Structures are given as C-alpha cells and as structure tokens.
Amino acid sequence: MSVRLSFLIVLAVFSLAACCETPPAEEPGVDVAAEEQAIRGASIIWLQATQAKDSATINDFFDADAVTIFDGEIHEGLAAIQANREAGWASQPEETIIWTTTAVEVAQSGDLAYERGNWTSDPDGAGEAPEEYGEYLTVWKKVEGNWKVLYDAGSKIKAEEEPAGEG
Fold this sequence. Notes:
Blueprint: H1 3-20, H2 32-51, H3 55-60, E1 62-70, E2 73-76, H4 78-91, E3 96-106, E4 112-122, E5 132-143, E6 146-156
Parallel strand pairs: 1-6
Antiparallel strand pairs: 1-2, 3-4, 4-5, 5-6
C-alpha cells in the first residue's frame, strides 16, 4: 500500500470516529418562560408591598448595590433607596401608586433580565392633585436563586400642553 493511500485511510478512520463520537452531555437550559413569570410575580408582590408601605418586604427585592434613577434623582445602595422611599411616604402619606409590566426579557444565561412598564401615581390619593404617569425600566439579577433589583429607573410622562384658546 502506498504511503498516500495509508494516510487517506487513517484520515478517513479518524474522521469517521469524530463523526460518530457521542457529544458531551449539555447542561440543562434555562427555562426562560418560567424565569419571566417569576419576575412578573415578584413585581406584583413588590407592588403590593409598596402599596402597603412595607419597607422590609420591599428591601428584600433589592440587591445591596442597587441604584434607582427617577427624573434625575439618583440613589445608590439599599440604605439610600430605603431612606428616599420613607421620606417620600412621610411627605406624601396619601400617595397611591400602581404599575403594570408591559415586557420582560430574560437573558439566555438566566442570570439577568429587564422589566419594562408604566406607572400611575396620585400624590394625594383622593385629593385634588392630578395623577402623574410615567414609564419604568428595571434590571433584575439572579442572586443565590432569587431575582433582585439591580437598577430601577423611570420618568414622568409630561402631559401635552393644551392649545392656546382663541380670543
């Protein structure tokens, strides 16, 4: 047998062995739909705790290094976020709020996600002050099996100015 033919036979055997080799077992994938539902559920519980002014429960949703950014006001770290929240409750004790999740996207890795939605707040509840509206974006991070808020940002949507009357 020629050297060239021997080389081709060896190459064919190695190629065939590589094709037929059992691939390594893949690790189970992340159930992105289940993680999305977990975030939606966490957001609902967070909203209920906010409406009840339950600071301890709300704190459980935040990462220790979380950052909030709302209309130019930035608070870094859990202590600063809690202090701002409680100051808001003290200055507007009748305030009401509701938010609605409009989208959740979970990374294929299953360790990061974002939630987008809109909110409505009334600074004095049933009082005369007008409701405020806005949108938010929350970045969630999986920490020891639990979803934690890493960044929470939002902005008011300004009402369109009414056209000037004729006169």
